[in-house]
Design a protein that fits this description.
It is a single chain. The chain is an alpha/beta fold. The chain has one domain. Helices cover 34% and strands 13% of the residues. It contains four helices and four strands; from the N terminus they run E-H-E-H-E-H-E-H. It has helices spanning 33-42, 62-66, 91-104, 123-142; strands at 22-26, 50-53, 83-87, 110-113. Strands 2-1-3-4 form a four-stranded mixed β-sheet, sandwiched between helices. Helix 1 crosses helix 3 (91-104). The two termini are 23 Å apart.
Length: 143
């Protein structure tokens, strides 16, 4: 995602995505946090800090959430929509993470990458936008 409502295909390359290296995980119960960490470990990425966002993060900007310490929210339940927001990784790492996620068979979720525009959005605004984009995409596919 680059701007609201736009998508760019991400080719496998060593090009780095915008932002500090971090993953924001949303909407997972505490019992699945270790599973998400295993997905990342399965890719061979060992230096990826993670934030497990909960409802207290909904009104924070993505920039504020990225600044939270590694493993913030670990073992805290989250009831918001499932999403993973990736920052500062390479395009190839993005593909590895998404492939590993699918291989484990976890439920569908929203995916996003941090952009200069989205880092100023609240987490709630981003999740709302991603949900609307997913619904619009589904409608296009059925027509």
């Amino acid at each position: 995602m680059t701007e609201a409502g736009t998508f760019n295909k991400v080719e496998k390359s060593d090009q780095r995505i915008y932002g500090e290296r971090k993953i924001i995980v949303c909407g997972y119960p505490a019992t699945e946090h270790l599973l998400i960490q295993a997905v990342i470990a399965r890719t061979g990425i060992s230096d990826m800090p993670m934030v497990f966002a909960d409802e207290s993060c909904l009104e924070k900007t993505l920039k504020e959430i990225i600044a939270l310490p590694d493993l913030f929210g670990l073992a805290a339940n989250s009831r918001m929509r499932r999403a993973v927001i990736l920052s500062g990784i390479t395009h190839e790492e993005l593909h590895h993470i998404m492939d590993s996620y699918r291989a484990i068979g976890l439920p569908g979720q929203l995916w996003a990458t941090l952009t200069p525009t989205s880092e100023g959005w609240t987490l709630k605004a981003l999740l709302d936008e991603l949900s609307a984009e997913r619904e619009a995409f589904r409608k296009r596919q059925t027509n």
